[in-house]
Amino acid sequence: METFYITTAIDYVNASPHIGHAYEKVLADVLARWHRLRGDRVFFLTGTDEHGLKIASTAAALGRDVRAFVDENAATFRRLTRVLNLSNDDFIRTTEPRHQQGVRALWARVAAAGDFYKKNYRALYCVGHEAFVTLSDLVDGKCPEHETEPIVIEEENYFFRLSRYRPHLRRLFAERPDFVVPAARANEMLALIDTLEDISVSRPVEKLAWGIPVPGDPGHVIYVWFDALTNYISAIGFGTDEARFRTWWPAYHLIGKGINRFHSLLWPAMLLSAGVEPPRQVLVHGYLTIEGQKISKSLGNVIDPAETVRELAARAGVEEAIAADALRYYLSRDIPFGEDADFSRAALVQRFNADLANDYGNLLNRVLPLVHRHFDGRVPTRGPDEGGDRALRETARQAAEAADRAVARYDLRGALEEIWRLVSAANRYVDEEAPWRAVREGRLDRAGTVVANTLEAFRAATLLLSPWLPAAARRAWEQLGLADPLEAQRLTDAASWGRVPAGTRVGPGQPIFPRIEEAVPAPAPVGSSAAAPTGTPPRARATEGRSQVETISIDEFRRLDLRVAEVLSANRIAGTDRLLELEVDLGGEVRRIVTGIYPIYRAEDLVGRRIIVLANLEPRRVRGVESQGMLLAAEWEGDIGLLTVDKAIPAGARIT
Q1: Predicted pLDDT at 520
Q2: DSSP string, 381-445
Q3: At 550, is the pLDDT very low, low, confident or very high (cuts 50, 70, 90)?
Q4: Of the given ranges (97-111, 474-488, 534-548), which has the lowest mean pLDDT?
Q5: CB–CB of 386/446 below 8 Å?
Q6: How far apart are CA 25 and CA 188, in angstroms?
Q7: From residue 380, how far is each of 396, 445, 499, 551 by CA, in Å?
C-alpha cells in the first residue's frame, strides 16, 4: 500500500470562486479517488490563502472588517468542495492557529540555518502576484498575468537566501527529471535557476498588518508566499504533530502554471533550508479561457461553477450532484492536462448528451427493461461463451489496466478514452448480440447471457468512472442491486468478471443522465462514441414528474416536411461501427442520409424499402458525408424498427 498526499493551490479569498478553481480541484479529486480505488492511503488537501496586501486592500475598499471578509469568502470556497462532490480530507485556512504554528516552526528552522537577513531596498511589486518583479518580467510596463502596472516599494524587509540554493535545485532537477510535469514546465524552471536572486519574505507592519508576525520581531509580518506555501505541511502536523507529518509528507502539488516558480523553485529551497525533503512532484496544469480570453473580472467573463451546476441541473432535470458529475467529466475529458483550453457551455451539454446520456446511461437503460420483462427483475444466469462474450470480458480487463497507466501519467483525458473503449464495446455487444431477438426466437438462455454480460461490463465501467462520477456511480450501483458497497471496491475488481451474481434483484432503471433536448441538434464532441443513431430522432427520455415532450401547435406540425422515400442504395461507412450511407428517392429527388442503425439493419436489407423521411431538416456533415434528412424509427428495449409504408404509396408522397 502506497501513500498518496495530493494538494491543490490554496485559493486567494479576495474574490469568489470561478471555473478555473473548479478545474484544479476536480483534477486533484479524481487523482485522490483513483488512488483510493488502487488501495493506496490517500490524503487530499485544499483550502484558502487569507493573508496579504490584496486581501487587506480589497476588504478596505469594500469598507469591510478584514476578518469578517475572509471568513465570508472562505466559506464560499468551502461550499464549492461540496458542490463539486470533492472528497478532500481537510480544508486548511491560513488564519487558523495550527497553520500559524507551522509557519513559525518553519521560520525558526530557516533562521537557524542562517538563511534570513534584513536589508533596505527599492523594487517593483505586483499586488496581483503578491511578489516583487523586475523590468524583464513586464510587458509594456505591465504584469502580463494581471495586466496591471506594479507599484514601487522602498522599505526594509527580511530576505531569504534563495540564490544559495541554485546548485541544490539544479541537483534536484537532475536527479528527479519528473519533479515537475509536464516536461515543458520543468524546462521553464530549469531556465530560471541560474537567475534566482534572494527574495523578500516579510513586510513592515506599518505597510501590512494583516498577517503572521515574524517570530521575535513584531515590527514585521511574514510575506504571503512564505506563509501560504507552508500550508502544505502545517495541515499535516508540521510544528504540531511530527509523527503525523512524517506519515504523509512528501506531497504531490497540483497547481496552475502562473505559480509554478514559487512551487518548483522557492518552496523546495525553503524546505531544503529547513532540513525537510522537497515535494514528491509538482503537477502543473494550464489555464481555462472563455471564448479564447483569460478569465477576468474586468472582462466580465467569470463563470461561477456553482451557478453552472445549478443551470445544468435545471436543464437536465437532475439533482445538482449529478450535474456536478457531468461538469467533472467534461473538465477532465475535454482539457488535456498541462495545456490551456477553452471552457464552453455548449460543449458541456454535448458531453452530457453524447457520452453520459447516450453512451453510458443508455447502456444500462437498454438492458434493465429486459431483466424486468423476461427475468422477473433478477440478473439471469450466464451460459457458455458465444459470439462476442469473451472479447467483451477481455476489453474490460484491458480498459482497467490501460486507464491505470494513463492516470499514472496524469493523462486523465486518456484514461477516460480507455474507459470509453469499454463503454462503446458494451454498446456494440448489445447491438450485435441483440438479446431482444434471442427472446423473440425463443432463445431465452442466450438472451440472459447477453444481458448478464452487459451488466458486468456496465459494473466495470461504473467502477472505473467512479472517480469522475461519484454521485452517478453510486446511483448506478444501486440500480445494479449490488450488495458490496461501491466504496469497498478496488481497481482489481473492475478487471474481474462475475461480480454481478445471478439472481441479484436490479432496480427500476430510471435514467441517471436524461438527455437534454436542444432546439438545434449539436454535433457530438471530437472523440465521442455516441450511441444515439445519427440521422434518427434522439431517443425519448421519460423523467419522473415531467412529460417526455412538450406539446406543439398544428401549425408547428405542418412545418415538418414528412415524405415517403424509397431506399435506392445502402453502404457501410468505412471506419465506423454503426453508420450507413443511404441514397433515397423522394419522388424525383435523390438525397443522401447517414444513419446509425447498423447492424440491426444491414445494408442489403434496406434497398427497395419505402420509409418515412423528415425532408426539411437542416443538412449536417457526418464523417465527410452531407446527411440531407432524417429517417424515422421507433426504439424499445434497445431494439430499433424503421417506420415503413405500403408499397403502393409512391415515393415523394407527403405525410399530413
Answers
A1: 38
A2: PP-S--TTHHHHHHHHHHHHHHHHHHHHTT-HHHHHHHHHHHHHHHHHHHHHH-HHHHHHTT-HH
A3: low
A4: 534-548
A5: yes
A6: 24
A7: 20, 8, 13, 40
